[in-house]
TrEMBL record:
One of its GO terms (biological process) is RNA catabolic process. Residues 21-39 have a biased composition (Polar residues). It comes from the Eukaryota. It is found in: Nucleus. Residues 1-17, 254-277 have a biased composition (Low complexity). Keywords: Nucleus. Coiled coil: none annotated. Residues 1-43, 252-277, 370-419 are annotated as: Disordered. InterPro entries: RNase_H2_suB, RNase_H2_suB_wHTH, Rnh202_N. Residues 377-417 have a biased composition (Basic and acidic residues). It comes from Coniella lustricola. The keyword Transmembrane does not apply. Residues 130-337 form the Ribonuclease H2 subunit B wHTH domain. This is Ribonuclease H2 subunit B.
Length: 435
């Protein structure tokens, strides 16, 4: 018991000494501030944007949510495209501020800032027409007779959600003029004194979007869109593949093989046989460099091929759908696509050749799918039949072996188990003399 008490006392003394020992942990030189709710971001702005340009929050034309845009009264509007860094390699930006910001940060003990991520926001031009579409959506959704309204009346519908669009028009008359000019591209206009009145028109909007799609599709679309939405979408099922083997420098090959020129005077059967021998001989004798003269061409036979007109119409439709799905409200998009398909209003594009090709292509794909499933079923059935025959043969063989074993005596079965390795057979003792 004494030892136990002494041990406890020693433990208490040791712990008290450790508590009395001063801490050697070094304090931080700078106290880190609390994380900001709006951290700095890296924006790449156009060089032609003036000093009056401002970043404002406007209603997104497609998703009806506030989004950031750069408005310049001289050069127009810009949207921010986010370019994200791969998540597998975390990175950040080291930002050095201006002279005034540096003097402020030096007072606080900091000269630069570090972002939490490495995302870039690139300002790209956007047509002000799309920024005005949310203001025109109220008149589009109305079921009554549409009236001519001023631009202020249209913009007042967004004053509660995103008032910045109205404020920019009041602050910059040049920007207001630019916005009204683009509103006139999708509206019927009427002059009322010194003021222009606007009434939304689906016919003008579909014509404007179609004109933008034609500019986008005049050349090939981006590689990813061209491959997925044009090439593969118009690709027909493959009927078969022919492997064509062409031989070049045939005369030199025949001479190297040692064949005389008199073979040309033989019959057609001899000619085909000699050419086959020459090809075999040259393949065995030539080197790897000479084998490059032999070209294996794959000739693919498709059920049908899309004409150049059909390909152009497909590019135009994909470009039209892309613009609508990115910058036009969903309710308007449904109406515009229907008008384009029916060729109503100013949508003068004739998509009948493309529709006929797509309908025929869908029929061919359905037939190919049915034939493939039928061939798979027949192949599986033949494999099942083959396996059934193999099982039947195995069963017969096993039954035959069982019958043979049942007729054998116990002594014969025991003799079969004897190891006869190295023993002479019984017939070796009954060979004729002299053999």
């Amino acid at each position: 018991m004494a030892r136990t008490r002494a041990a406890k006392g020693a433990t208490k003394a040791t712990s008290s000494k450790q508590d009395a020992k001063p801490s050697t942990t070094s304090s931080s030189k700078h106290a880190l501030p609390a994380e900001s709710s709006s951290p700095p971001r890296v924006l790449i702005l156009p060089s032609k944007a003036g000093s009056d340009a401002r970043v404002v929050a406007l209603k997104h034309p497609r998703y009806s949510k506030p989004a950031r845009y750069l408005i310049c009264p001289e050069t127009g509007a810009y949207e921010f495209i986010q370019i994200s860094a791969p998540k597998t390699t975390p990175r950040s930006w080291l930002i050095e501020g201006s002279e005034t910001q540096q003097s402020f940060h030096q007072q606080q003990g900091f000269e630069t800032q570090v972002t939490k991520g490495a995302d870039l926001f690139l300002a790209t031009p956007i047509d002000p027409l799309f920024l005005a579409l949310p203001a025109l959506a109220a008149q589009f959704a109305s079921t009554g007779k549409r009236m001519f309204l001023s631009s202020d009346d249209h913009l007042d519908t967004l004053n509660e959600e995103t008032p910045h669009l109205r404020d920019t028009c009041v602050r910059w008359p040049t920007w207001r003029k630019r916005l009204e000019d683009r509103m006139a591209a999708c509206c019927d206009t009427a002059e009322a004194g010194d003021e222009t009145m606007f009434r939304f028109s689906e016919d003008k909007l579909v014509a404007e979007v179609l004109a933008k799609a034609e500019k986008m599709a005049v050349n090939r679309l981006p590689a990813s869109m061209e491959e997925k939405f044009v090439t593969r979408a118009l690709e027909a099922p493959v009927l078969g593949i022919k492997r064509v083997k062409t031989l070049q420098k045939e005369e030199s090959t025949l001479s190297e093989a040692g064949l005389s020129s008199t073979t040309s005077s033989q019959s057609e059967a001899d000619d085909s046989q000699s050419s086959l021998v020459a090809a075999t001989t040259s393949t065995a004798a030539t080197s790897v460099a000479d084998e490059a003269d032999t070209v294996n061409a794959m000739d693919v036979e498709s059920a049908m091929y899309a004409s150049e007109e059909v390909v152009k119409l497909q590019r135009l439709r994909i470009a039209f759908n892309f613009i609508c799905s990115s910058y036009v409200p969903s309710a308007m998009t449904t109406v515009l696509k229907k008008m384009l398909a029916e060729g109503k209003g100013a949508a003068a594009a004739n998509f009948k050749p493309l529709d006929d090709y797509v309908a025929q292509l869908a029929k061919l794909r359905q037939e190919a799918t049915l034939s493939r499933s039928a061939s798979d079923y027949s192949r599986k059935r033949s494999m099942d039949e083959d396996s059934e025959e193999k099982r039947e043969k195995r069963r017969r063989k096993e039954e035959e072996e069982k019958r043979k074993k049942a007729g054998e005596s116990r002594g014969v079965r025991d003799l079969k188990k004897v190891n006869t390795a190295g023993m002479k057979k019984l017939s070796a003792f009954f060979k004729p003399k002299g053999s």
